[in-house]
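Example 9 (inverse folding). The structure is encoded as follows.
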């Protein structure tokens, strides 16, 4: 089960930190990711992390502004979002992929949270 939190409404240039608590899933190595979906658009990858080696990857649109991280002790995934832009407005989803190749389309991910809304004005 994945439960996201931390979304909200901010002005352009502001910051938010999303959290995703992952329970009931234990494995030595897998991928965790943040995706987002704006109305009328496809779900797109934002950032991923390989839980085994810590390698991260970001979409071009967020690289340098967003940071993905994970607290293993708390089994929690984070997305620190700085310099937010109106085009970042979307529903943000946390996801797990059981295989350790992380930058893949959304359909390759096995488990999903319910999403948290981010609105930038």
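The amino acid assigned to each position is listed next.
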């Amino acid at each position: 089960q994945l439960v996201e939190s931390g979304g909200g409404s901010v002005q352009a240039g502001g910051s938010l930190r999303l959290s995703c608590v992952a329970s009931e899933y234990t494995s030595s190595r897998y991928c965790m990711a943040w995706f987002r979906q704006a109305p009328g658009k496809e779900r797109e990858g934002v950032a991923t992390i390989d839980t085994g080696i810590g390698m991260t990857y970001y979409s071009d649109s967020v690289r340098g502004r967003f940071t993905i991280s994970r607290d293993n002790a708390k089994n929690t995934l984070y997305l620190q979002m700085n310099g937010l832009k109106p085009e970042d407005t979307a529903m943000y989803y946390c996801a797990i992929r059981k295989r350790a190749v992380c930058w893949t389309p959304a359909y390759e991910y096995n488990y999903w949270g319910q999403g948290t809304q981010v609105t930038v004005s």
